[in-house]
Amino acid sequence: MRNRWRRDAILTVITATTFIFLAAVTSALAQHPTPQPPQPRQSPNAPTNQNVPQGLDGPQLTPESDKVSFDVQNDREIRAGVDRLYNMVVELKNEVNQTNTNMVLNTSVVKRAQDIEKLAKQIKDRAKK
Fold this sequence. Notes:
Blueprint: H1 2-31, H2 63-98, H3 107-128
Helix pairs in contact: 2-3
């Protein structure tokens, strides 16, 4: 019986010690919770829209508004080119009127005519777009 009493006492001590140990571990864990794993942060250089290639997510333009803005810019450039062409033609006309037509044309007249042709071709190509 004595052995039984001793065995019961040892089991009681072990059970009490285990209970105290588990209570201490539980309170320690409650005071110091496990830290959350670090969350990945998005790079400041990453595009905001994942469907857009890197570096191309500027202001979003619809195809219609992009076409309208291109048409307006193209129209301005054509008008500016035509004004320049008109001024160049008027200057060429005045220079030709001042020269003698029986003589050989001055090289500056030929050069101006080539510049006028070049500008006219640029305007024509821009108008085709």
